[in-house]
Design a protein that fits this description.
Layout: E1 2-3, E2 18-19, H1 22-29, E3 39-41, H2 43-48, E4 53-62, E5 68-74, H3 76-88, H4 100-103, H5 121-133, E6 141-145, H6 151-161, E7 170-176, H7 179-195, H8 201-206, E8 226-229, H9 232-245, E9 247-253, H10 261-264, E10 270-274, H11 280-293, H12 297-303, E11 317-323, H13 333-342, E12 345-353, E13 359-366
Parallel strand pairs: 6-7, 6-10, 7-9, 10-11
Antiparallel strand pairs: 1-2, 3-9, 4-5, 4-8, 11-13, 12-13
Helix pairs in contact: 6-7, 11-13
């Protein structure tokens, strides 16, 4: 078994951070993989799939400037329980691939499962960088590719919900290969971001005195473990807050090569991805996606209003966070940078960790 350094889920989760052995991996690479097509998963469908209770724990993100950011994250064991329970209660799903995620010998099964149930280390690095740079999110189009547990998007949503409604429409779009990841972790984590923010106060105040047969609400404190009852009232309040703040959540599953930019509504102002360059044979499709969803530098001047008072090159971000090298699967920063430059992109390292496993955040600009 080859170690794939490494994620930050609790040791109690007891999932190996690994890929199949080199011989098995070579066999996979030599076999044509049927990639899942582009599909939009509706927000309402994901809301309807929520369980009656979400268990969450603190995710503490150390900051380079000192201190930390704490987000609430759904417990992986809780997501596992939901998936197993759904399978048991639905005879039509007896042979579905989702349950295999729990027992797979690898965290990466090419063309089947791409690691979206795990929280990978470099997603925390993006939060560190965003917190330091403090870009404007309100009124922007934000896209996270290969989102998985969506830690950067959770941070952004909590940031949006921490202020007052601003009258600007903000698009937060998330993409992952596996739609089931949206149900189990992505949307639950986004709901937790809302619950832990001032935007949920009216709902929490209204539900402060539950009836004897109802579970009392925990405090809106991301630093403690909690169990959040997912009631119809909570779902309604969450959707109402999205509307009040002008936040448009959309979810897209399927392969990067099948992504439909027209259906998603066009290019984005902020593009984020982390731990997605681990396999050399998928880097080309990732770069094509990043280039297609990004405006060119030349187009930004005409796209942005002069009244924004911002330099056009600073108002757009395309950030790729990754380890320097991925042992066992061959991907890494050097090959990625070479591939971007072949596409006439420019790569700038804006954040770097040299101690231990080397990690970088790269900013990409397209001519």
């Amino acid at each position: 078994m080859v170690v794939f350094d490494f994620d930050i889920d609790d040791p109690a989760d007891d999932l190996e951070i690994s890929v199949s052995d080199p011989a098995s991996q070579a066999a996979v690479n030599d076999t044509a993989i049927n990639q899942d097509p582009f599909t939009e998963v509706s927000l309402q469908h994901l809301v309807d799939c929520l369980p009656s209770l979400i268990s969450c724990s603190p995710l503490s993100i150390p900051l380079s400037s000192g201190g930390e950011v704490t987000l609430a994250r759904r417990d992986l064991f809780d997501a596992r329980f939901q998936l197993i329970n759904d399978e048991v209660n639905d005879e039509q799903k007896d042979n579905s691939p989702e349950l295999g995620f729990l027992n797979a010998p690898s965290d990466l099964v090419q063309g089947v499962y791409e690691g979206g149930l795990k929280t990978w280390e470099c997603s925390l690095d993006i939060v560190d960088y965003l917190h330091a740079e403090n870009p404007v999110f309100e009124g922007r189009r934000v896209f996270e590719a290969g989102c998985g547990t969506a830690v950067p998007s959770v941070y952004i949503l909590q940031n949006l919900f921490s202020g007052l409604p601003h009258g600007k429409e903000t698009h937060l779009h998330l993409q992952d290969y596996n739609a089931i990841v949206f149900e189990l972790l992505t949307l639950p984590n986004l709901i937790l971001a809302w619950y832990m923010s001032p935007a949920s106060k009216a709902y929490r105040d209204a539900a402060a005195h539950p009836s004897p047969d109802e579970t009392p609400l925990p405090p809106a404190d991301a630093s403690i473990r909690a169990e959040i009852p997912i009631t119809l009232e909570l779902k309604t309040a969450f959707l109402s807050s999205l509307e009040a703040y002008g936040i448009r959540l959309r979810f897209f599953s399927g392969s990067w090569s099948s992504f439909d930019l027209h259906q998603s509504g066009g290019t984005y102002d902020i593009v984020l991805t982390s731990e997605t360059i681990y396999r050399t044979d998928s880097v080309g499709s990732l770069i094509d996606l990043l280039q297609s969803v990004s405006p060119t530098v030349d187009s930004l001047t005409s796209r942005l209003s002069i009244s924004d008072g911002e330099n056009s090159s600073q108002s757009y971000l395309c950030l790729v966070a990754a380890k320097i090298f991925y042992f066992g699967v061959g991907g890494g920063v050097t090959n990625f940078v070479e591939a971007v430059e072949e596409k006439e992109g420019r790569v700038e390292t804006v954040w770097e960790q040299k101690v231990g496993v080397g990690r970088r955040i790269m900013r990409i600009q397209w001519s």
